[in-house]
Amino acid sequence: MRRFQPGIAPTLVVLVLLPLLVCLGFWQMSRSEQKRVLLENHAQRRTSEPVAGEQLKAMPDPAFRRVRLSGQFDAEHSYLLDNRMRDDRVGVELLQPFHDESSGLWLLVNRGWLPWPDRRTPPVFSTPTQRLEIGAWVYVSPGATFQLGADPANASWPRLVTVVEPDKLWAELGRTGFNYELRQEFGPAAYEAGWPVVSEGMGPEKHVAYAVQWFAMALALFGLYLYLGWHNAREKHHGSGHESTEHS
């Protein structure tokens, strides 16, 4: 009778890689479900009537809520969110504090995308000084932003950053502010403000495709392991049979 004999090294490799590949597949499936729910919430709330600034503070889940604000931008403290691409063009997104008069609340408003083709010169933008009424919606990131390194603390303004952290800005400025980014709708003071909820090409279906790849790799690894085990057993069986014939 031939026994299954894959060998110690292949067994150790499978014990390490197989659970990892399966876990990666299920992780991608969970990411797909998260983004599906995210897109559904966005579609539902983006069609609702906008709320006033003071209502945001009492909302347990403000994600994607539309809001009407009335007040002024702070031109002295501007964030330039780096590495933003639009139509294969490199640029930044401009974020500035906005003081809402009705609520007395400070909100960090993303005014939109600006081209930045030449890094030898800073991006060009202007800030209205008059009182404005603007529409915006609350953006909540679907996950933590990957950073190669932390943004420099207490850099000069306007400040080039790779991640938006409103709570740290309000703490630095000593202000009472809303701890989520708001993205301005088309209107006064807005730059290029077409906002994808998730990164282009990274919708739920993309994560499902990645999950299928991880599961396929796990299945292929397990199949190879089975083949190797039975193949080694057959080779040893033939070898022992050949030796028995020679001795007889």
Automatic annotation (TrEMBL):
Pfam families membership: SURF1 (PF02104)
Family the entry assigns: Belongs to the SURF1 family.
Keyword entries, A-Z: Cell membrane, Membrane, Transmembrane, Transmembrane helix
Subcellular location: Cell membrane; Membrane
Membrane as UniProt keyword: yes
UniProt topology in membrane: Multi-pass membrane protein
Membrane-traversing stretches: 208-228
Protein name as it appears in the record: SURF1-like protein
Taxonomy, superkingdom: Bacteria
Source organism of the structure: Pseudomonas gingeri
Any one cellular-component term (Gene Ontology): plasma membrane
UniProt keyword Membrane present: yes
Lineage: Bacteria, Pseudomonadati, Pseudomonadota, Gammaproteobacteria, Pseudomonadales
Main location: membrane
